[in-house]
Design a protein that fits this description.
The structure holds two protein chains of two kinds. The termini of chain A are far apart. Chain A is 0% helix and 47% strand. Chain A is an all-beta fold. Chain A is built from no helices and ten strands. In chain B, 0% of the residues lie in helices and 59% in strands. Chain B is built from no helices and eleven strands. In chain B, strands 2, 4, 5, 9, 10 and 11 form a six-stranded mixed β-sheet that branches. Chain B has a five-stranded antiparallel β-sheet with strand order 1-3-8-7-6, with no helix packed on it. The mean pLDDT of chain B is 93. The chains are: A mainly beta, B mainly beta. At the A-B interface, strand 4, strand 5 and strand 9 of A face strand 4, strand 5, strand 9 and strand 10 of B.
Chain lengths: 113, 111
């Protein structure tokens, strides 16, 4: 079956612009995660959605970052007024629930110039 | 605060060798531990998931063990192949959702 997909695969934007990153999870997966992987850094948890529950936003680095998940499926991560330090690979993962295997998408490489 | 450490940071071995990658975590109150591989420029591929009540999981040439009380997990790769060259990441989930990753072990298997 289809895996987790993310779009765009690459995004170059100017400092100060807003960007939207999209994640399509595996059908039937109720849990969705966003992570950030900066050059030379490990994966950093950003936000988590589980079903219709309120998302866990504890990992978002600033109020410029927000995410939503519509209809319990597709998710969009929005970064407002991008800064150069936002340059990273943004990875999305989904799973059947909170204690199940996570499946990752290929990521979106964001470059802020 | 949960911290995950992976040793070694990098490893180079000749083809055919058996090898062990190590992962340690500071808080034993975990739900599960998952091993992933990441190829350059790609996303993560799940290898094995060990629930907190389990001691090990096996898939093909891979075997992962979990000792929750000591905060350790090992990933054993038998008869390594050049195609195994990648970065291997260990991740623990606590509280059901927040997943903490180690920095990874970069493995290079020489033909």
């Amino acid at each position: 079956g289809a895996g987790v997909s993310q779009s765009p695969s690459n995004k170059v934007t100017e400092k100060g612009k807003d960007v939207e990153l999209r994640c399509d999870p595996i059908s039937g997966h109720t849990a969705l995660y966003w992570y950030r992987q900066s050059l030379g850094q490990g994966l950093e948890f950003l936000i988590y959605f589980q079903g219709n529950s309120a998302p866990d936003k504890s990992g978002l680095p600033s109020d410029r970052f927000s995410a939503e998940r519509t209809g319990g499926s597709v998710s969009t991560l929005t970064i407002q007024r991008t800064q150069q330090e936002d340059s990273a690979v943004y990875l999305c993962a989904s799973s059947f629930g909170t204690n199940y295997e996570q499946y990752f998408g290929p990521g979106t490489r964001l470059t802020v110039t | 605060k949960q911290e995950v450490t992976q040793i070694p940071a990098a490893l180079s071995v000749p083809e055919g060798e058996n090898l062990v990658l190590n992962c340690s975590f500071t808080d034993s109150a975990i739900y599960n531990l998952q091993w992933f591989r990441q190829d350059p420029g790609k996303g993560l591929t799940s290898l094995l998931l060990i629930q907190s009540s389990q001691r090990e999981q096996t898939s093909g040439r891979l075997n992962a063990s979990l000792d929750k009380s000591s905060g350790r997990s090992t990933l054993y790769i038998a008869a390594s192949q050049p195609g195994d060259s990648a970065t291997y990441l260990c991740a623990v989930s606590a509280g059901g959702f927040k997943t903490i990753f180690g920095a990874g072990t970069r493995l290079f298997v020489k033909a």
